[in-house]
Write a structure and sequence with these properties.
- With about 350 residues, the chain is α/β, with parallel strands linked by helices.
- It has one domain: 3-Layer(aba) Sandwich (Rossmann fold).
- The strands form four sheets. Strands 3-2-1-4-5-7-11 form a seven-stranded parallel beta sheet, with helices on both faces. A two-stranded parallel sheet has the order 6-13.
- About 45% of the residues are buried.
Length: about 350
């Protein structure tokens, strides 16, 4: 394996943290961006607690997606950029531009700096939100050839931000990218071991179930992927010859019903799962609530739909083999309990 200098954007994030851990374990030199270097000590402590090795090969630099400042220094002498950072606010947002503008403009800012410094490849963290949302209910198996419908049912500002940012990235690389290559990663709902005390990604759902904050389960199914496998796919995409110019859907298997997630937590976490609900919420109740709630409106659009997702491309091109989705759910729950993050 050739040691590389890798920039990871959004170094305090959930996926980015797991990418950093795996890169260091593989012997790479890692530079990570933070909005402020005041956070460096705290981020190092979180990574050390998660088992970081070779921490002396990790450095930090200040850079913000909303400003050009710092990005030339951030990408300097880097072979690869893992652009993981992006605003994350699923659900209703009053103004789409609060998410779309920083996601799209920040992505272009990173790509421009990478091109100017001669970075070989950028691996961009997009999302299944850029593939499988806004479509009518269907038995279609979603692949990397699909794109979300911006104004379709169940689409939200976060989904639009991921879709528009990824499309802008592909357009930029095609028209202005020079020799810099682009690969995009499209994870479904990301669960798995929590880093520090920040609960991110779809671990929020596991936390709410453990806290008993859901009255029951709507008829929804969620495709899941383990954060450790998302990180490993990013690392594989850095150097795999056939990865350049490709999108990769990252999913662990069939979508899992929400009631199954609750059952897994009850089965594996003992007394810590005492508040996990057992009952279901009838569709008619969810649809009635959707008349008054933006959050329930997006839930109502997904009722009864089991989205089918293929990760065959990632397996064939990257040699990527993910854990079972059940492993991601249980790992998320165990880490939330261990860190005492489930108290109401």
């Amino acid at each position: 394996m050739t040691t590389q200098q890798v920039l990871v954007t959004g170094g305090s994030g959930f996926i980015a943290g797991h990418c950093i851990l795996q890169l260091l374990e593989d012997g790479h030199r890692v530079r990570a961006t933070l909005r402020s270097l005041d956070k460096e000590a705290a981020v190092r402590a979180v990574l050390a607690d998660a088992g970081m090795v070779h921490g002396d090969a990790l450095t930090f630099v200040a850079a913000d997606l909303t400003s050009d400042d710092g990005w030339p220094d951030a990408v300097r002498d880097c072979d690869v950029v893992l652009h993981v950072a992006s605003p994350v606010r699923p659900g209703h947002v009053e103004d789409d531009d609060d998410l779309v503008v920083p996601a799209r403009d920040g992505t272009l800012r990173v790509l421009r700096a990478a091109r100017d410094e001669g970075v070989r490849r950028v691996v961009l963290t997009s999302a299944f939100h850029a593939v499988g949302f806004g479509h009518p209910h269907t038995d279609h198996v979603f692949t990397e050839d699909d794109w979300s419908v911006l104004d379709g049912p169940g689409m939200d500002a976060y989904g639009r931000s991921k879709t528009l940012a990824e499309r802008a990235a592909w357009d930029f690389v095609r028209d202005e990218g020079g020799s810099t290559e682009l690969t995009t990663m499209l994870p479904v709902a990301v669960m798995g071991p929590v880093l520090g005390r920040d609960v991110s990604g779809s671990n929020h759902l596991v936390q709410r179930i453990l806290q008993g904050r859901l009255p029951g389960y709507p008829d929804m199914s969620i495709p899941i992927v383990d954060v450790r496998d998302v990180a490993s796919a990013h690392v594989l995409a850095m150097s795999t010859d056939g990865a350049a110019g490709r999108r990769f859907l990252l999913a662990s298997g069939p979508a899992m019903a929400m009631r199954h997630i609750g059952a897994l937590l009850r089965e594996n976490l003992g007394a810590a799962a005492d508040k996990v609900p057992t009952r279901r919420i009838p569709n008619i109740v969810v649809r009635a609530g959707a008349l008054f709630s933006q959050e329930l409106r997006s839930v109502a659009a997904e009722l009864g739909q089991v989205k089918k997702v293929s990760h065959e491309t990632a397996s064939a091109v990257l040699g990527w083999e993910p854990r079972r989705p059940e492993d991601a759910v249980v790992a998320a729950g165990e880490s939330l309990v261990r860190k005492a993050l489930v108290a109401v």
